[in-house]
Amino acid sequence: MTNLEYLPRLNRESILTRIAAAQTLSQIPTSSPAALLAVSKGHSINAIRHLAEQGQQAFGESYLQEALPKIAALSSYHLEWHFIGAMQANKTRQIARHFAWVQSLQNLKIAKRLNDQRPLEYPPLNVCIQVNIANDPAKSGLSEDAVLAFATQVALMPRLQLRGLMTIINLDATEAERKQYYQKMQTLFLQLREQVGFAIDTLSMGMSQDFEAAITGGSTMVRLGTVLFGERH
Ligand SMILES: *Cc1c(COP(=O)(O)O)cnc(C)c1O
After folding, report:
1. 216-227 pLDDT, tens per residue?
2. Quick check: CB of 84 below 6 Å from ligand 1?
3. Smaller CB count within 10 Å for the chain: N or C?
4. How far apart are CA 158 and CA 124, in angstroms?
5. How far is the CA of 161 from the centre of ligand 1 (A)?
């Protein structure tokens, strides 16, 4: 089967149950349940509030201008915001101030700016390196070979806390190809942990269409938009 099916919207509890079930099937030993990042781009403040009231804490946004009013409006919920989109140098100051995580790190200049601009009164900014595991020229992320050298540089930056890797798996790939990508990511993740240490605890892969397969393939964090919120506006 190559085509992924459209997934209907599911409630948060049933998604958590499915994540736990997929983890049970995995051959990869894990000490804690995989994390759920609710990707709220294209969804309203009210939709986010509704999920926050069910206990969801971590939310992902791809566009700074869209995220800022949401972050401000929901500040009383003390949510954990993850930036997961493309970054331009002129946006780093606000990203370093308003987000707890950046999952789309792939460039040294941007890393240096985030490190310099993270406010001193906050804990270090958690970061994941984005990997282009399929070497797809149309996709962003570092190539597999470039990750460990880049990680060495990032690990030296005191205001960044390197947590792991993020990838966007190409959903046009066949099931067999996707399995290979999960496996390659898992290998790279273990190499990174060996190199940097046990602070490396996050392998962020899997979206609405493939989250269960990604968890079984070793993901520690899935990023779900459509299955949680419905279609984006
Ligand atoms: C939009 C987005 C998602 C969520 O995609 P869905 O298919 O709606 O679950 C996950 N990760 C990234 C990086 C995204 O941009």
Report:
1. 999 999 999 999
2. yes
3. N
4. 7
5. 23
